[in-house]
Amino acid sequence: KVTCVNVPVFIEYAMSPNGSMIALRGKDGLIHLFNTTTQELISLELCQPTQEFLWDEYSYYSGALLWSPNARYLAFTGVTELPCDILDQANIYIYDTLANNITNLTNNVPVSGGFITPSSWSPDSEWLILYGAWSQRDTNELDWQSVLISHQGIGFRAIASHYQTCRLIWSPDTTWLASNTGCFESSGTGSDLIFIPFDFDVLSNATETVNYIDEIVPPLHFGHRPTSGWTSRYTSPIWVNNQIAVAYRELAPISGGYLMNGEMESYSSKGIVAIDISTMTETMLADRSSADNTTQIGNWFISRQNEDFLFFNPLIDKELVLPATMMPCVVRDSIQISTQGSYIAIVHNCTFDGTHLFIYDTSQLDNPLFD
Asked: Which of 5, 12, 52 is nearest to 28 (CA)?
């Protein structure tokens, strides 16, 4: 059964974990909430600037509409006046779906323009990690860092302020924070995976002791390492449990011209790896050396390999293979897959001929359930 409802034209959305609410960012920048049960549309009367200040593959998905795990709170970047621009003064707001009110979390905190975004919630929905430019240095350079604040707007403090940690993710027991360091990643630079021991009551644990995984874990499957070192690229991590974090990573030697193309290829590695935080050891879960690229959408890693797309979800240890012909558009902009991988929705919107939505049962891909 399909039910059609009228909502403003939107360019971004986020569904609450329990499916009861959908947050929408309208084409004009205004934030709306849609109740899927009552079909009521609520305007929050705040505008959201486009979040494009993370210069890597996450630039359009920087968590600007972020639901808490308990589905009660929506965190987002907000500007009070239209039309909103990234240079306008912004704050982080929380909408409480039970109390039906909005709280300005950063009203008393200096923020540089709209360069601020919610990054991740704690598992108990009490605390929020924010990332942004909180001040300007004497040289007028923006001072980027991650900070912690409660959903009530208290306890504001910097987290690992001397490190690039723009996507800090809590372990389920909140004893670790993990992030890749690709905040300003480009084709000419790499990124690392960083682990920070965390304690809500002991600030030093959250700022001083940091483990870079690249300094500890050697590449897999190689007899020896080239003496010139390595360059790496990691995605944002997924915590499987309190001890294991999973990420997609690429490793390549820095040869300085001394290695031939064949040697460069033999010493390079691409794949989905699990990091055991207690022993700092790495296990390859899915080798992707032959894949063109890998995209992370939610808890799914999606790789293009020859004529197929390979799907892998480490949380449920599930793999899927779909023909590349099923997804003609940019993967990140065209698919959504259910938590257990039973259903996949694919939007064909890569031409000017119109947009088409197909929904498939992943166990039976010959015919769509809906088109």
From this structure: 12
Q: In what order do the strands lie in the sheet with 116-121?
A: 116-121, 127-136, 142-150, 157-159
What residues have CB less than 8 Å from 293, skipping those under 6 apart? Answer: 303, 304
Structure tokens of 208?
A: 């001083």
CA distance 266 to 244: 28
DSSP-assigned beta bridge partners for residue 37: none
42: tokens are 């609520």
96 alpha-carbon distance from chain centroid: 23
191/185 Cα distance (integer angstroms): 7
Q: What distances in angstroms separate CA 43 from CA 23, 96, 100, one per listed residue?
A: 10, 14, 12
Query: How is the beta sheet containing 41-47 ordered, strand by strand?
Result: 10-15, 21-26, 30-35, 41-47
Q: Which residue has the higher pLDDT, 223 or 246?
A: 246
Would the pLDDT of 110 be above 80?
no
Least confident segment among 117-131, 186-200, 275-289 = 186-200
What is the C-alpha separation between 202 and 109, in angstroms, rounded? 22
The dihedrals phi and psi of 11, each to the nearest 5 degrees, come to -120, -5
Cα(11)–Cα(301) distance, integer angstroms: 24
Backbone angles phi, psi at 39, to 5 degrees: 60, 30
pTM for the full model? 0.83
Check residue 266 and report its DSSP letter. Answer: H
> Cα 275 from chain centroid?
18
328 phi and psi, to 5 degrees? -75, -15
What secondary structure letter does DSSP report for 124?
A: T
- Name the 3-class secondary structure at 334: helix
Q: C-alpha distances in angstroms, 163 versus 12, 240, 277, 356?
A: 30, 24, 19, 43
**How confident is the model at residue 208, as a pLDDT?**
52
State the amino acid at position 205 in one-letter form: N
Cα gap 238→274, rounded to integer Å: 9
Identity (one letter) of the amino acid at 338?
S
* CA–CA distance, 197 with 205 (Å, rounded to integer): 6
